[in-house]
Structure to design on (359 residues):
């Protein structure tokens, strides 16, 4: 099973490496540029007899999703996803994220230009493991997970990678639209702003992918029905993890001693793992999440879903009530909010204020 969070947006390491001097940024940026140097334009790849049919199909599907994102959603015009890199790997990079042991306080890495972010990506998995081990020794809950794409926020043309040919059409569309959303609306700032960036791109990616499939095949098509089932399962999985985090937040907020909190944390996770196992068939339509070992989750795993999934109902409500269900209007509204002082400080608060004004 590939990463349970479909797409993760990393820092624009390659772009920043061109602008600033930083050991980490320069090193990771150089590696990304080395990968970028292998990119072949879509037109050239499609005309090359040596290009595999799987890669051809990926390029066609991504091209169609990209045109939908530009024409129907009004996402920013860039050269993203107009080339492909053949890569002998199942991932683009490995990302490290960490939280405190007895709270959901995130470990933040400082970056030039974009500020502090709650993740650090590495093209070499061994380097990611070393960073994870460093943080574990400091007492943090840590995860190191594979990701399939990131956005350089329009600084460079982000390519497709050959391993993406295994993704279904909904996943490809979600990936393309998610990352193009980052290139269109991306706020610099603290944890609240970073959470908005991820939640908004996740919402637009998923909703945009459904609308793309409906436009291509019809709203009642088997393709759309399958995508809705997959999305429902993904949302059920995310909701289960967020509810687990909510239980633990109550534990962490208590006046108990740290040792008692650790014990209760272990009890909550064990109980939730058993609940997940016993209730799986009633909650999920497919087997995608059946093999997930819920007993191994930690604060970093749970916070991953708090970061990316957060408050999907807020974005759905804003799209429906403030934008009449028009996703393009919502993207335009988020661009407007991002240009205001209040929006830059706390975009979700700005969204709530606009919703309250409608009542």
């Amino acid at each position: 099973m590939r990463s349970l969070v479909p797409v993760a947006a990393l820092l624009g390491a390659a772009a920043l490496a061109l602008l600033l001097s930083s050991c980490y940024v320069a090193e990771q940026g150089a590696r990304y540029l080395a990968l970028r140097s292998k990119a072949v334009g879509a037109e050239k790849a499609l005309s090359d007899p040596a290009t595999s049919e799987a890669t051809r199909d990926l390029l066609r599907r991504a091209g169609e999703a990209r045109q939908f994102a530009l024409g129907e959603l009004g996402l920013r015009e860039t050269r993203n996803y107009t080339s492909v890199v053949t890569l002998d790997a199942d991932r683009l990079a490995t990302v490290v994220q960490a939280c405190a042991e007895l709270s959901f306080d995130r470990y933040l890495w400082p970056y030039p230009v974009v500020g502090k972010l709650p993740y650090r990506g590495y093209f070499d998995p061994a380097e990611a493991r070393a960073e994870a081990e460093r943080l574990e020794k400091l007492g943090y809950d840590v995860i190191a997970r594979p990701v399939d794409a990131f956005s350089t926020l329009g600084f460079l043309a982000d390519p497709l990678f050959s391993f993406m040919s295994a993704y279904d059409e909904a996943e490809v569309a979600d990936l393309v639209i998610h990352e193009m959303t980052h290139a269109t609306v991306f706020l610099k700032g603290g944890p609240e702003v970073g959470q908005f960036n991820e939640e908004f791109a996740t919402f637009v990616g998923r909703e945009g992918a459904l609308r793309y499939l409906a436009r291509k095949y019809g709203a009642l098509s088997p393709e759309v029905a399958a995508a809705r089932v997959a999305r429902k399962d993904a949302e059920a999985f995310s909701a289960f993890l967020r509810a687990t985090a909510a239980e633990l937040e109550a534990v962490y907020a208590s006046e108990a001693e740290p040792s008692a909190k650790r014990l209760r944390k272990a009890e909550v996770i064990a109980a939730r793992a058993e609940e997940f196992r016993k209730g799986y068939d009633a909650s999920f339509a497919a087997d995608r999440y059946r093999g997930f070992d819920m007993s191994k989750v930690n604060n970093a795993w749970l916070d991953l879903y708090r970061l990316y999934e957060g408050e999907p109902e807020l974005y759905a409500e804003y799209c429906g009530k403030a934008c009449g269900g028009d996703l393009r209007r919502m993207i335009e509204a988020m661009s407007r909010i991002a240009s205001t002082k209040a929006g830059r400080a706390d975009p979700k608060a700005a969204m709530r204020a606009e919703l309250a004004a409608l009542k």
Summary: Residues 1-21 have pLDDT under 50 and may be disordered. The beta strands are 40-41, 83-85, 93-99, 109-111, 115-117, 120-122, 141-147, 160-161.
